[in-house]
Write a structure and sequence with these properties.
Chain lengths: ~200, ~180
């Protein structure tokens, strides 16, 4: 007689049936780039490594060319701002191997005053516009990028809007704004750590 | 005697403004400045089911030189603002502007570095259509409201009142 599938799963059963795939790629990187890897973790079978920005090009080249890695597709490159944590920024790169069907997430922490790292657009051409967007939104410099200009915003824009210290309500219009009857008082204010203050005109 | 009869039945007296405005309000050539998801509702309005052609606003013109009604349909951001302003300036007088949907009317739920907080900060607007996106019925209501506005245009308005000044009062009285 078959067991009732609705019966509550016992605890020891759970621990048995949750096998995590061994972190093969992490082990590979620890073996070859033990100086670069700061930390690593695995979640739901997906591996993440946090690396130093020094010598990252060698590491990425290894990930692309080594027969055990063969990451031929760069899925995503973006950044996160963890103000007021230091190191403040974190550049996140998602890689996938179409041939070997595995993924890897690489994170590169960056301090506030040294928010720059080597470009990987030489390895994956797809990284070109991602890096431009990253520069546009976060002001992270990709050294050696062939054309590091703003991608989405206009050239007259000052600052980088996705940084946490960018004034939330600040607008930088290109054409003069007409005077209209104001709808909300708060549109004229910028919320700062010290409290609301008027918009710079 | 016969002449008197003819006079009673063969002409009517009116103001020239009334005739011109009447012809204008039923021949609105629109320029659809479509930037976002509101465009789907705009298409629905001019599809067969809701049929905006019933109101004489039938043919979209994709050149501002040939249009007299600017439909701003969707979000306008600061990068696009100079384009919208230029399109408006290229339209020949008389011209009217409809802010279609929440984003065009007020910026909608975008209040950030990128989005213009209502196109009336760049160009004058005659009709605001609320909704995110507006129902086609709301769009048709706005269109009829615009026609009423056009019919009343003139030095003092055909009815002796300036519709642009009393718009708020009219809206209040209707609610």
């Amino acid at each position: 007689m078959a067991e009732d599938p609705r019966q509550p799963v016992e605890e020891e059963q759970v621990s048995e049936q949750a096998p995590t795939s061994p972190p093969v790629l992490t082990a590979l990187l620890l073996e070859n780039f033990s100086d670069s890897v700061v930390s690593h973790h695995t979640n739901f079978g997906d591996e993440t490594v946090v690396i130093k920005r020094e010598g990252l090009l060698d590491l990425f080249r290894f990930l692309k060319d080594d027969p055990r890695c063969r990451f031929d597709l760069m899925i995503d490159l973006t950044a996160a701002d963890y103000l007021p944590r230091e190191p403040r920024f974190e550049v996140v790169v998602h890689l996938k191997s179409i041939v070997l069907h595995h993924r890897l997430r690489v994170k590169i922490p960056l301090a506030t005053d040294e928010a720059e790292l080597d470009t990987i657009s030489g390895l994956w051409v797809a990284a070109d516009w991602y890096e431009r967007e990253c520069w546009d939104m976060y002001g992270i410099v990709f050294k050696g990028h062939p054309n590091l200009r703003r991608l989405l915003l206009y050239d007259e824009f000052e600052g980088h809007p996705l940084r946490k210290d960018y004034d939330y309500y600040l607008q930088q219009p290109l054409v003069p704004m007409r005077k209209i009857r104001e709808r909300h008082d708060y549109e004229h204010k910028v919320i700062t750590p010290e409290g609301p203050k008027p918009l710079p005109s | 005697m016969g002449m008197k009869q003819n006079a009673a039945t063969s002409f009517i007296t009116t103001k020239l403004d009334a005739v011109i405005n009447w012809s204008r309000k039923f021949s609105l050539f629109q320029f659809p400045f479509v930037t976002a998801c509101c465009g789907m509702e705009y298409m629905a309005v001019y599809g067969a089911h809701y049929d905006g052609a019933r109101f004489g606003a039938e043919i979209p013109r994709f050149s501002p030189r040939q249009a007299d009604l600017l439909f701003v349909v969707g979000t306008v951001n600061h990068k696009l603002a100079p384009v919208l302003k230029r399109v408006y300036e290229q339209m020949a007088e008389p011209k009217w502007v409809v802010a279609f949907g929440a984003c065009a009317a007020s910026g909608g739920f975008y209040q950030n570095y990128a989005v213009v907080q209502g196109i009336d900060r760049i160009i004058p607007v005659d009709i605001y259509i609320a909704g995110c996106p507006p129902r086609p019925e709301a769009v048709l209501d706005g269109l009829v409201e615009l026609q009423r506005l056009i019919q009343d245009e003139g030095p003092k308005g055909i009815t002796g009142i300036n519709p642009r000044q009393t718009k708020d009062e009219l809206l209040l009285s209707r609610s």
